Amino acid sequence: MPHDDDKGVFPLGLLDTGKDLRRANTLATILLKYGFGDVIRRLGLAAPLEQAGKLVRTSIDRDLLTMPPPQRLRCALEEMGPTFVKLGQILATRVDMFPREWIDEFERLQDNTPALPFEQLLPMVEQALGKPVTKVFRNIDPVPLGVASIGQVHRATTLRGEQVVLKIQKPDIRAKIDSDLRLLRHVARLAVDNSAELRRYRPVELVREFERSLSRELDFTIEARNADRIRKNLRKLEWVKVPRVYWSWTSPTLSVQELIEGIPARQLERLEAAGMDRPLIARRGAAIAWKMALEDGFFHADPHPGNFLIMPGNRIGMLDYGMVGKLSHSRREQMVQIMKSVVLQEPEGCAAVLASWSDGQPVKYEALVADVEDVISLYYGIPLEDLDVGALLNDITGLLRNHNLVLPPDIALLIKAIITLEGFGRLIHPGFDVMSEAEPLIRRMLRQRYSPTRLAKNLSLKALDAVDRLYAPPAPAGNPVSEGNGIDPRHLERLVRHIERSQYRQVQAMLVTGGIIAGAVMLGGRTPPTLWDISLFGLLVFLGSTTWGAWLMLVSRRYLREWE
């Protein structure tokens, strides 16, 4: 099966260099060790490796085979090294592709990377600074605060006495990752060509998504910009702390940020001993996450306990902005639409959103609506504030898998963040409800969505869109879009005026209806002041609204005759 669109992306041969051959051999050996030899065969890798004489005959450890497949794969990825640990962490966000037990194992992936002596990192620091470290820092602690596959974090003091942390990229890490990415590109293409079962996971798209994510993570300035943006968005919340970035010393291979000190969120005994209010901390954590996702559309995509420090006064310090998600306004509305459809038991509304995520793939819409109805019926009668959003999202993603639909990456990140947040909140406070803080925001978004002002704005935008299409250059001859247009440009201004006045009448009609209803309610309730047991104010509102409505009907009829 040819892949013309991959020309220039994938190298021509699977094993182009001796280094790639040795690496492929190492990875194949690890897969065989953990009982995944069938994966090698299904990918079509066995034959080239056999021909190269490099496929190691590894005996399978029977003890390993007693572990469930998700656990074996997690152990294999950890043994394969940093690139594959990062790949597993990306797969942990694809709740639409993998069942819960696989996601749980992907989330447990850890970087088992030993710390490098600071002497090996010193040249990287000075190269990034463009000067000796003694010109910037009074001292740097050689013992790392943390070690990851891509970098190490060290505490330091500036010449002005400020406490900071340095995140230093490890030497030669980019070359190692590039080598693994070459192999992953090959493997993704082979999976598409040789396995219908693996093809449904869209391996080529997954690898491309992974490459984009990893390239952003290798540039520390991107993480620093993420931190700056989130700090700006959360500046009104006095009980959240986002570290300040020292931009004069930050570069793609070195990040210098303000040091935040506090109790790690997972150390519950220390929180209790310090007298922290754990229910309040859980609520504040949820408020931060929902504000970022639903209001700002830019959110921390990995809110696990290790990325939170609890500071005096029950303040929350947030760390690690390498993985963030972005949600457009339309995406946020889609999530609100799903919540609304569940609460109001409207399967068609939820199914319409899910079908829009099909990425052009055919969808059996009636079957999808029926399955959605089965899922949301489980939540019948549950108020929005009591909705178990984690269970709901798991049910919906399971439904997507059954219909071979794939979540957009931004929605997948959001769902992963919500599920992780729920786990974090319940660790801090067992009675935590992730929807408790989301409910007011969702209600406010629903009110804004159906407000008369929003309606008028949307109608205006649709009118402008129609005008833009009229002003657009004519389509090429033979283009079906240009045939049968039937609109005379000479009537353009008249059409625009008609649309604008129609919008104005619609808003007036809504106000008239509201006034008649309000007047009737006040008349029935005999709202004071009254005369002969009749509410004078209610009568005034009722008669005024009725007169306004009659006038509006007369004007509309005249206007319609003019238009005709």
Summarize this, please?
The protein has 564 residues and is an alpha+beta fold. 57% of the residues lie in helices and 9% in strands. The protein starts with 17 loop residues before the first helix and ends with a helix.
Rounded mean pLDDT score: 78
Residue share in helix: 55-70%
- The unreliable regions are 1-15, 475-493, 559-564
- Which of globular, elongated, flat, extended, rod-shaped describes the shape? globular
Number of discrete helical segments: 23
Distance linking N and C termini: 59 Å
**Major sheet, described briefly?**
5 strands, antiparallel
What does this structure look like?
The chain has 564 residues and is an alpha+beta fold. Helices cover 57% and strands 9% of the residues. Strands 1, 2, 3, 4 and 6 form a five-stranded antiparallel sheet that branches. A four-stranded mixed sheet has the order 5-10-9-7. A hairpin with a 3-residue loop joins strand 2 (146-147) and strand 3 (151-158). Helix 5 packs antiparallel against helix 6 and helix 9 packs antiparallel against helix 11 (203-218). The longest helix has 34 residues, at 492-525. Mean pLDDT is 78; it is low at 1-15, 475-493 and 559-564.
How does the SSE layout of this entry go?
Layout (H helix, E strand, L loop, with lengths): L17 H16 L3 H6 L3 H6 L10 H4 L3 H12 L1 H10 L8 H8 L10 H12 L7 E4 L5 E2 L3 E8 L4 E7 L3 H22 L1 H4 L3 H16 L1 H14 L6 E2 L12 E5 L4 E2 L3 H6 L4 H19 L1 E3 L7 E4 L3 E4 L5 E3 L2 H15 L3 H9 L9 H12 L12 H14 L6 H20 L6 H15 L2 H20 L20 H34 L4 E2 L2 E2 H28 L1
Parallel strand pairs: 5-10
Antiparallel strand pairs: 1-3, 2-3, 3-4, 4-6, 7-9, 8-11, 9-10, 12-13
